[in-house]
Design a protein that fits this description.
Blueprint (H helix, E strand, L loop, with lengths): L15 E3 L13 H8 L6 E3 L25 H16 L3 H14 L2 H14 L11 H4 L8 H12 L8 E2 L16 H4 L2 H13 L6 H4 L4 H22 L14 E2 L8 E2 L4 E2 L7 E2 L3 E3 L4 E3 L1 H17 L1 E4 L2 E4 L5 H10 L7 H4 L2 H10 L25 H19 L6 H4 L4 E10 L6 E12 L13 E9 L2 E9 L5 E11 L10 H4 L4 E10 L2 E8 L6 E2 L1 H4 L24 E2 L11 E11 H4 L13 H4 L27 H4 L4 E15 L6
Helix pairs in contact: 2-4, 10-12, 10-15, 11-14, 12-15, 14-15
Bound molecules: CU2-O2 cluster.
CU2-O2 cluster binds next to α8 and α14.
Length: 670
């Protein structure tokens, strides 16, 4: 029976697997040969799956194939950890494939996909494989389900070469009666949700220690989610809204409702919606083995604050000090929480169970036999306005810790002899110091994730935010007599707060979104540093999210947008917030001393895309400074404004973000 091409060598298209008959599910074994004939595709290469003696699946198969799977539910994480271990333990890729094909028939498909992807990312012998994007495997988590009925119709009636893309409207989850709907373009962006899914795939909370224990992973949990919040708040200000309010009291109502309008094809159910003002309730769900009181969440929270305020953690084997540089990493693992938490039975599972509390708010004791809402899945949670209230709260806990740390003095911030003299932003074919944003239509082929015959492309077209490419041109003077090296750090924040007032640095520092970070070599005298927006250290290339279609040729064949590999990294199309008719922002550039930033390691042969938010695969985080530097701490005494914060190696340039309310087709110039 042809299976999804899960182990597909780079560049090849489809393969079919010749599977031992007893690998099929028991009920299909008697009709195995008939099925093999029925689905045989003479044009696809055949791969024979070796019959080996397989380790037992045990309780991994207990999660029914039509249940939903969540990385926030302890039981599900335990099962995933077991399955990852089985995949990691297979002696060679041939055995791994046998195990995978066998498990694919018996294990919950989302659990399977997650565990198998984690194993492929971490086995030394599968490093050259591309992992198909989660969008291919589970398109139902990302797009309006109307697509699937329409897709079925199209593949039945319209020949492949003349199929037109199915249009997903921009405004399908709510109307403008709901203020939060103004942010739907951000929350429901496919690239944003893929990034979040992939980040949590690269940084599992539960698996073998060597998989979980990555360099500064707790700190990166803090920083990547802090940046999500900064970016979301930036977008809110662009839309005339105030910053996200924290969800501080667990007994308070959740102010916003959300109706995701997504189907779950695995469970044959719709994702539950939530009306406004629902409240968390104690959870008592035997199926998922979750019995958790809100009071317990509060105890965890209070213990975490006590650790922060006393700088001391009650570890499983004695106390641990929260130090200036490593403390944030300990806290990240404690709050998320992960296997690396210093004491899980004491500090609990605050962040993950916050997702779970919110995701079961409609059926806390399972009386309606309902599964969790979108907050329960890392590939859908960023769609929900509550995600941001919860993460605003989580981030505030981290900021409480950061506020107590020693402040950077001028010497720590400065880079003697290096002065940033000018910043110029040049938008392609556009004005100076002005970003230009607009809507763009992109199409992807989702046929892989749809299980119906006859097959062929099912193109889906949707509209997303985009910006014109741009270059930074930065003049840096090196007054020393020697060549020196620096790290160029580029950030941006709104110039005014929601009332239109200039910021206190204290508040503005949390609004800075990282745009880029790279190493520069500075000759004595004046240097011009140039850098393209497409090289950003926070994004993955646009082509990894949506490949450009050629608007002058019929859609189809090689003229298709496709996700050619999944990847952690902010989507390039959302690098710049939407702006408005003339949104005023401040572009910040700092050249820090590389000798304080450098991490000595060989990064040859590693993908370096999106290192700022995702780290570098199998390497240390590529910057020795605390993540978020220089905005991660309270300002030194006497500093009230951004201008006062600046040392000569920093500079600020006022810029405008100009939004053009036009929709540009893929492949067309703006
Ligand atoms: Cu990424 Cu709450 O962790 O979602």
């Amino acid at each position: 029976r042809p299976t999804e091409p899960i182990l597909m060598p780079k560049g090849s298209r489809n393969v079919q697997f010749d599977v031992p008959n007893n690998y099929l599910k028991e009920e299909y074994q008697s009709v195995g040969p008939i099925l093999a004939n029925r689905f045989l595709d003479p044009d696809s290469p055949n791969v024979t799956v070796k019959e080996i003696s397989l380790p037992p699946l045990g309780d991994i198969a207990d999660l029914a194939r039509d249940e939903n799977f969540s990385l926030f539910i302890p039981k599900h994480k335990r099962l995933a950890s077991k399955l990852i271990n089985l995949f990691m333990g297979m002696g060679n890729t041939e055995d791994l494939m046998s195990m995978a094909v066998y498990a694919r028939e018996r294990v919950n498909p989302i659990l399977f996909n997650y565990s198998f992807s984690v194993a492929l990312l971490h086995r030394p012998d599968t490093q050259d494989l591309e992992i198909p994007s989660s969008l291919f495997a589970f398109p139902d988590k990302y797009v309006d389900p109307k697509v699937f009925a329409k897709g079925r119709e199209i593949v039945n009636y319209v020949p492949d070469n003349v199929r037109q893309p199915i249009e997903i409207p921009m405004d399908y989850t709510a109307s403008n009666l709901e203020d939060e709907h103004r942010l739907a373009y951000f929350r429901e962006d496919i690239g944003v949700n893929l990034h979040h899914w992939h980040w949590h795939l690269v940084y599992p909370t539960e698996a073998a220690l060597e998989i979980v224990n990555k360099d500064r992973r707790g700190e990166l949990f803090y920083y990547m989610h802090q940046q999500i919040m900064a970016r979301y708040n930036f977008e809110r200000l662009c839309n005339g809204m105030k910053r996200t309010e924290r969800f501080t009291n667990f007994y308070d109502p959740m102010p916003e409702g959300y109706f995701p309008k997504l189907d779950n094809l695995v469970a044959s159910r719709s994702w539950p919606g939530r009306v406004a003002n629902m409240r968390w309730q104690n959870l008592d769900r035997s199926l998922e083995q979750i019995h958790l009181d809100i009071d317990e969440m509060r105890r965890w929270r209070d213990r975490i604050f006590e650790a922060i305020h006393s700088n001391t953690v009650r570890g499983e084997n004695g106390t641990i000090e929260l130090t200036e540089f490593e403390g944030i990493d300990v806290l990240g693992n404690m709050i998320e929480s992960t296997l690396l938490s210093p004491n899980r039975s004491f500090y609990g599972d605050l962040h993950n169970m916050g997702h779970t509390m919110a995701s079961y708010v409609h059926d806390p004791d399972h009386r309606h036999l309902e599964s969790f809402g979108v907050m329960g899945d890392t590939s859908t949670s960023m769609r929900d306005p509550f995600f941001y209230r919860w993460h605003a709260y989580i981030d505030d806990i981290f900021q409480t810790f950061k506020s107590g740390l020693p402040r950077y003095n001028e010497q720590q911030l400065n880079f003697n002899g290096v002065t940033v003299e000018q910043i110029r932003l040049q938008t392609e074919n556009g004005p100076v110091n002005t970003f230009q944003t607009y809507w763009q239509k992109s199409a992807v082929d989702l046929s892989r994730g749809m299980d119906f015959q006859p097959r062929g492309s099912v193109l889906v077209q949707f509209t997303h935010l985009q910006h014109r490419p741009f270059n930074y041109s930065i003049i840096v003077n090196n007054a020393t007599n020697a060549v020196t090296t620096g790290t160029c750090r580029i950030f941006m924040a709104p110039k005014f707060d929601e009332r239109g007032n200039p910021w206190l640095f204290l508040h503005q520092k949390n609004m800075f979104i990282e745009l880029d970070k790279f190493t520069v070599r500075l000759n004595p005298g004046r240097n011009t540093v140039t850098r393209a927006s497409t090289d950003s250290s926070v994004t993955i290339p646009f082509e990894r999210t949506y490949r450009n279609l050629d608007a002058n040729r019929p859609v189809g064949g090689d003229n298709l947008a496709r996700f050619n590999m999944c990847g952690c990294g902010w989507p390039q199309n959302l690098l710049i917030p939407k702006g408005n008719e003339g949104f005023m922002a401040q572009l910040f550039v700092m050249i820090s001393n590389y000798s304080d930033d450098r991490v000595d390691q060989d990064t040859n042969g590693t993908g370096k895309d999106a290192g700022s938010y995702c780290g570098i695969k199998d390497r240390r985080y590529p910057d020795r400074r605390s993540m978020g530097f220089p905005f991660d701490r309270q300002p030194r005494t006497g500093v009230e404004t951004l201008q006062q914060f600046l040392t000569p190696n920093m500079r600020v340039q006022d810029v405008i973000i100009q939004f053009n309310n036009r929709i540009v087709k893929q492949g067309e110039a703006f």
